[in-house]
Design brief:
By secondary structure, this protein is an alpha/beta fold. It is built from nine helices and nine strands. Strands 3-2-1-7-8-9 form a six-stranded parallel β-sheet, sandwiched between helices. A three-stranded antiparallel β-sheet has the order 5-4-6. A hairpin with a 5-residue loop joins strand 4 and strand 5. The two termini are 18 Å apart.
Length: 290
């Protein structure tokens, strides 16, 4: 075990216990926003996070002003995501999968950083900002291509000082009154990023894919999620019913702490890096079960 937590005996002991609990298992991983904070992407539920006022699907679909405001904020958010890089935590999870210690990653994040880090089996529960779909004809667009259109139609949006952001990363209501909302180039229909809006349900087939990943594993590692979103708790309960050990790594309390086999209250990048180091061998494979 490394010396990262030598001055914090309780955390060091929790990490050692997590290693012992996970060793020899095939691990399903569930991640939340806390895994991406070290990449510069805010965690809206962590300690000190601003109050978030997410847009609902109903607002987006029925109110033109809300849709304009959403697209300004969504474009700026996508630009921030695309400029971010995977951090040590993302890379550690990819290493665990390559070694055969992890069966894959289920993520509540839409930033695509697990894929960019090299993880192959990634279930994106809440969708991805990489794609945009037409709600009328179903045509799918690459977000990079759509971004070019957005900036051609709204050249002012490329100048940061022309956009006033609110504390939750969204744009303030009066911003974007002249914004030209992108429409489907095939049928002129309404475009929506392939993400689950507040108030929408996760597609049933996507949740079944996540369940299958948990069922094909023998342990569950939850990292960077407060487990406020119901889907996370449901997957935790699936693991508990199968009597799988559950390790939670998160700064601060989560809604699943009382149900975890081990809780590590520390940063995900550091802990996941340590877990990957301890649960893989020098040649990049998982050690045999004791």
């Amino acid at each position: 075990m490394g010396t990262l937590w030598d001055e914090d005996a309780e955390t060091a002991e929790a990490v050692r216990t997590a290693v012992d609990v996970l060793r020899g298992h095939r691990i399903a991983v569930l991640t939340g926003a806390g895994v991406s904070t070290d990449s510069g992407i805010p965690d809206y539920r962590g300690k000190g996070a601003p109050v978030r006022t997410p847009m609902t699907a109903q607002q987006f679909l029925t109110d033109d002003a809300s849709r304009r405001r959403y697209w300004v904020g969504s474009h700026l958010g996508w630009k921030a995501f695309s400029a971010s890089s995977p951090n040590a935590g993302h890379r550690a999870l990819a290493a665990l999968e390559r070694a055969g210690a992890a069966s894959g990653v289920i993520t509540q994040n839409v930033d695509g950083l697990h894929v960019r880090a090299g993880s192959h089996r990634v279930v994106e529960l809440h969708g991805t900002m990489r794609r945009v779909s037409c709600l009328h004809c179903g045509q799918v667009f690459d977000r990079r291509d759509l971004a070019i259109r957005v900036e051609q139609d709204n050249p002012w949006i490329t100048v940061p000082e022309n956009v006033e952001l609110g504390p939750d990363g969204d744009v303030l209501p009066h911003v974007g009154d002249d914004f030209v909302v992108p429409v489907c180039s095939v049928c002129g229909g309404v475009l929506k990023p392939d993400v689950v809006f507040f108030g929408e349900f996760i597609p049933a087939e996507k949740f079944r894919e996540a369940e299958q990943l948990v069922h094909s594993s023998t342990a569950l590692l939850i990292a960077g999620s407060s487990l406020v979103v119901n889907s996370g708790i449901r997957l935790l309960e699936r693991a508990r019913r199968r009597r799988m050990p559950v390790v939670i790594v998160n700064r601060g309390q989560t809604c699943g702490d009382s149900r975890a086999t081990v809780k590590v209250d520390a940063g995900t990048s550091e802990v996941l890096t340590e877990l990957a180091r301890e649960l893989t061998t020098a040649d990049g494979t998982a050690p045999a079960a004791p």
